[in-house]
Amino acid sequence: MRVVVDAVDWGVKDGLILHDVSAEFPDGSVTGLIGPNGSGKTSLLHVVAGLRRPERGTVRMADDDVHAWPDRVRARRVALLEQHASTTLDLTVRQVVELGRVPHRGRWPGRLDEGHEQVEESLRLGRVADLADRRWQTLSGGERQRVQLARALAQEPSVLMLDEPTNHLDLRHQIDFLSTVKALGITTIAALHDLDLAAAFCDRLVVMRDGHVVAAGPVEDVLSAELVHDVYGVRATVDHHEAAGRLHVVWHR
Ligand SMILES: Nc1ncnc2c1ncn2[C@@H]1O[C@H](COP(=O)(O)OP(=O)(O)OP(=O)(O)O)[C@@H](O)[C@H]1O
Fold this sequence. Notes:
Residues 3-235 form the ABC transporter domain. The protein is built from nine helices and twelve strands.
């Protein structure tokens, strides 16, 4: 599903946080949302996910205004993996993943087992099938992140939003996680801090600074030493890495 953010302002009582943000996310593409701490990435994800209503501007998915959708419709179409997912409920991993099916269930009891296949498939895709009977509270940070991906996949969303999804993952799991996401073919918007991971897995980048979009487009067009310096204040070399077959960022002082 194509996502179009058009001239969005969003703020709190102390002032605007997102200023005139416009961005396009083509159907099936993976877009990295990058920018320094506090630049507005999470705020934008929340507005796009429909959790925050813009003061001005619109977010459209397949030409519908996301903020006009009833909550249940939105919950079927959009999945958001929060930065610090937590629950105080004493649930097993399988029960957490089953929560992803809630927006799809009928209103009547007796149909609670529907979506069983999607739950099993999502456990497999999230590489957490072996943890299915473990209690959520006993999992490591990285295991929880993979379970949250499985929960989001059980939702069968048309748009997947990830807020720093790899921050607890070791190198192998970072690569596995983002490879899985890319192979899904779902329109994905991921806030990422690691520019090398963004270059490796994203088709496009949207770069934010102080609540503004300062650059957007295909990774090869956007990621440059000048951009890294302008946006992060860090000197870097950005070049094509032969063996990796992609752009590669090396910072230096
Ligand atoms: N509810 C709120 N009330 C007050 N300020 C807020 C609120 N939500 C966000 N902010 C502020 O808006 C700015 C953008 O925050 P946001 O979390 O969107 O940034 P971010 O780019 O995701 O940051 P990080 O990389 O640190 O996660 C920050 O200065 C933050 O303190």
